[in-house]
Each structure stands twice: as C-alpha cells, then as structure tokens.
C-alpha cells in the first residue's frame, strides 16, 4: 500500500477523552473513530488488525476441530423466554420491538440461538461430539463503557458452544478450548494466563478466564509467580504435535497450565494462597480478561429440550459449555502489552503491514526507483509493505511509522544509495543497520 493512496487519519494531538495508552494510541494511529458511547467505526488500519486477529482465531478453532457458523445479530426474545434468561439478563441486554410489536434483542451472547439450531438438527449421540462457533458482533449495554475497544458496548467476540453426550466428553471439549486459546494468544504475541474464575449460580469449578497482566486491567488477580513461566513450548513435543482428539493429552496440558495458583478476585482464597504459595512468589496484580471458557452441563439443554438419543435408545440432554474470546478487546490488550512512548509496537503475528518503507527524498529518481523495487520484492514474497511516498519531512514520516508500530522500517535516501545501502530499523529494539536493499528484504522475510 502506498500511503499517498491510503486512508490513515493520524492525530497530532493526544485525544483528551482517552484515559489509557491503548485507547490513546488507537485514536492517534487512526484505527478507530467513536460513533457513540462504546460504539466505534473501524478505520482501515484498525480493521486490518481486527481481520488478522479474526483469522488467527479461525485457524486455531479449525485446528481444534471446531466448526464455524454465523448467527444473526438480532434475536427474537422467544428463545430467551424459554431458557428463562429474558428477565434475568437485566439492563445489559439492549431490547427493541419490530414494527409488529415483537420483542427483539441485540445478541449479548448466543447460548439460546445455538441450542435451538442443535435441537432442530441433531438427534443421535452418533452426531456428537460437536462444537459450533462464530465470530460476530455483540452488544451489551455496559453501564460504563470506557477505555475504547476494551469495554465497548458493541464488540467483536468469538463465541463457541460444545455439545457432548457425557460430562467427560464435555470436559474434553473444555480442555480443547483451553489449549486452542493458549495457542491463539501466543500467536498474537500475548501471554494470557488461565485463571480459575467464578462460575456464578451454577457452581462447580469448571470455568477459567484468560488474563493478560496489565496495570490498566479491570480485574484483580492473585497468582504464583511461577505461572508466568509456563509456556506451550514446554508441552510434549511442541505445538505441532498437539493431538486435540486425545483426552489424555488435552487433560495433561490443562493440568500443566491450571495447577499453579492463579485466580481472579471472586475465587481467590487467601488461606489456600498462603499455604500453597511461598511468600516471595505471591503476586497481586491487575489483568485484562481476554477470554473465558465454561462448562455448564445440561442447564440449557434441559430448559430447551436439546436431547439426543443415547446408545440405549433413551433421550439424553446434552452436556454443553460456552467459550468466548474478546477479539476487539484483544487489540487494546496487545497495545497495552506492547508499546513505547513513540507508539504501538505490533507483534509480528498481528501487524497490519509487515514493513514500512520511508523515502527520504520523494521525487528523486534514484530514491523513488529503489523504493519501488523494494516494494515489489517484498510483495513478491507475500509480505505487505506500507510505502510512505508522500512529499513530507523525514521527521514526520518517521513519527508516523513509529506511531503505527510496524515491526520493520526501511529508510531509503540518495546518500545511502550512492553506497548501495538502505537503513533497516527494528521497531522493537530501535536498532538500525545499513545493508543492501536485497539483504534488507531477506532479513524481513
Ligand atoms: P467482563 O468481565 O470484562 O465484563 P464478561 O465476563 O462479561 O467480561 P464474557 O461473557 O466472558 O465477558 O465474554 C467473553 C469475552 O468477551 C470476555 O472475556 C472479553 O474478552 C470480551 N468482552 C466482554 N465484554 C466486553 C466488552 N464490553 N467490550 C469488549 N470486550 C468484551
Ligand atoms: Mg461483562
Ligand atoms: Mg468477566
Ligand atoms: Mg467472562
């Protein structure tokens, strides 16, 4: 992409309404524009990152054997009356009526809708296990929308639902989600720690939230500092050998990640914390909830009559769970975890462009030709460069590149070209080196 033809409305001033760095940087980098409280338009750069995250989520869900569907954003209230949640859900649910006076609502979550799909089409245990998921806009009328996309009212969420014959199978689905989520966050350059969370009125301990540690997080968390060292790299023979079908393998990984003390404030137990965790390893911190997995048994299947015929021919209500990833919130979390005073520093896996090209003397024949050549070479390798071909001062171009945080910048100017070199700068370390244009391309690829 050539910057002169792109739409990147960066702001010079720091917007005063933004209280945390990720919100400020998303506004300054021209990623989003507020449309109403907690509701945003996604501008090209922000939209590109959102799509990257969405792709990673799809790939990892597919790898785990989960199947994508798309359900509507507007739902009829009838299904929610069946489950009994229409009255319980409260004011976070945005309700409306259509022209015939029928009660409708904007999806805050979709257990009812997906259970209705299931009961309409699945009747035998032989069709299980089944996990359906979607990535779709949600609306929750949050009392205090804030921090930009972190706590929006409209937000983009992956929500998945498993249907299984037995509790044991459903717990395997739970573990599959846990593992696939860890892979997902890791590919986004993030560490999200699974923490035991509150399962509310249903009870049981079968729910974990995934938290990214950050001072600006809204959750208070308690953990053993050892938990931070756990990594998928230490599991079995590495990532690509994961066998999602193996109950034992999935259980072993889940145990590995959830045996060390890590809890949100609702489930935190000071007695256990103090007896299990040596004092020097006890940590109290803040975190951003970027996902949650939940096994809830037959709550919805019983209420809504989602049964299958079991091996003995008798109807059995299916065991279910629901599992969410906050896709749009993740962008804020990634920026909170990865920035400096000049701007965003995108992890390679989610960056909107792989590399910036800065032409120090636009209009100079040699410099223009060298930039065009770099652009083609990078594109031919399947990489996406962003070429700043505007007639601007070098300082302004550098500031824009630093703000939008691409991992690499190639700076091209007549003086370097006389010696056959360009400058390659790593956004994360700030280190620069001079090398031939070909060598720069090789290094980025
Ligand atoms: P929170 O505790 O932050 O209100 P939640 O527990 O109500 O979140 P879930 O129902 O678990 O949210 O939804 C799954 C995921 O969707 C969350 O883990 C979070 O990442 C994301 N999410 C929830 N509410 C919002 C929101 N208002 N804005 C952006 N993302 C959200
Ligand atoms: Mg909430
Ligand atoms: Mg929560
Ligand atoms: Mg939650």
From TrEMBL:
Residues 33-347 form the Aminoacyl-transfer RNA synthetases class-II family profile domain. It catalyses: tRNA(Pro) + L-proline + ATP = L-prolyl-tRNA(Pro) + AMP + diphosphate. One of its GO terms (biological process) is prolyl-tRNA aminoacylation. Keywords: Aminoacyl-tRNA synthetase, ATP-binding, Cytoplasm, Ligase, Nucleotide-binding, Protein biosynthesis. It is found in: Cytoplasm. Pfam families: HGTP_anticodon, tRNA-synt_2b. One of its GO terms (molecular function) is proline-tRNA ligase activity. It comes from the Bacteria. Its EC number is 6.1.1.15. GO terms for cellular component: cytosol. Catalyzes the attachment of proline to tRNA(Pro) in a two-step reaction: proline is first activated by ATP to form Pro-AMP and then transferred to the acceptor end of tRNA(Pro). Belongs to the class-II aminoacyl-tRNA synthetase family. ProS type 2 subfamily. Homodimer. This is Proline--tRNA ligase. It comes from Ruegeria conchae. The gene is proS.
């Amino acid at each position: 992409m050539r910057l002169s033809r792109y739409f990147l409305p960066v702001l010079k001033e720091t917007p005063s309404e933004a209280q945390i760095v990720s919100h400020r940087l998303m506004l300054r980098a021209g990623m989003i524009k507020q449309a109403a409280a907690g509701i945003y338009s996604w501008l090209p750069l922000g939209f590109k990152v959102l799509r990257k995250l969405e792709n990673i989520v799809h790939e990892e869900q597919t790898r785990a054997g989960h199947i994508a569907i798309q359900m509507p954003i507007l739902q009829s209230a009838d299904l929610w009356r069946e489950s009994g949640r229409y009255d319980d859900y409260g004011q976070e649910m945005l309700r409306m009526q259509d022209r015939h006076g029928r009660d409708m609502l904007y999806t805050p979550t979709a257990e009812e809708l997906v259970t209705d799909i299931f009961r309409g089409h699945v009747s035998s245990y032989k069709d299980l296990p089944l996990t359906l998921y979607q990535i779709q806009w949600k609306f929750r009328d949050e009392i205090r929308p804030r921090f930009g996309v972190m706590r929006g009212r409209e937000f983009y969420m992956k929500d998945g639902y498993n249907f299984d014959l037995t509790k044991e199978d459903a717990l395997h689905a739970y573990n599959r989600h846990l593992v696939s989520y860890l892979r997902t966050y890791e590919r986004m350059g993030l560490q999200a720690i699974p923490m035991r969370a509150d399962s509310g009125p249903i009870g049981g301990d079968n729910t974990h939230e995934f938290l990214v540690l950050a001072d600006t997080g809204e959750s208070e968390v308690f953990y053993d500092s050892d938990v931070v060292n756990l990594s998928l790299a230490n599991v079995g023979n590495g990532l690509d050998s994961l066998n999602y079908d193996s109950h034992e393998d999935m259980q072993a990984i889940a145990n590995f990640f959830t045996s060390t003390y890590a809890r949100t404030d609702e489930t935190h137990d000071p007695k256990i914390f103090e007896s299990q965790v040596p004092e020097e390893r006890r940590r109290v911190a803040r975190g951003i909830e970027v996902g949650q997995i939940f096994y809830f048994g037959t709550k919805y299947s019983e209420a809504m009559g989602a049964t299958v015929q079991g091996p003995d021919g008798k109807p059995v209500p299916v065991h279910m769970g629901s599992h969410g990833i906050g896709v749009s919130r993740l962008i804020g979390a990634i920026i909170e975890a990865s920035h400096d005073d000049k701007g965003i520093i995108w992890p390679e896996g989610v960056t909107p462009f792989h590399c910036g090209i800065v032409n120090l003397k636009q209009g100079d024949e040699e410099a223009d030709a060298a930039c065009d050549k770099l652009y083609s070479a990078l594109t031919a390798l399947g990489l996406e460069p962003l070429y700043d071909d505007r007639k601007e001062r070098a300082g302004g171009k550098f500031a824009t590149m630093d703000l939008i945080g691409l991992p690499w910048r190639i700076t091209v100017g007549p003086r370097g070209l006389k010696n056959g070199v360009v400058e390659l700068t790593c956004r994360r370390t700030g280190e620069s080196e001079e090398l031939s244009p070909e060598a720069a391309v090789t290094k980025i690829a």
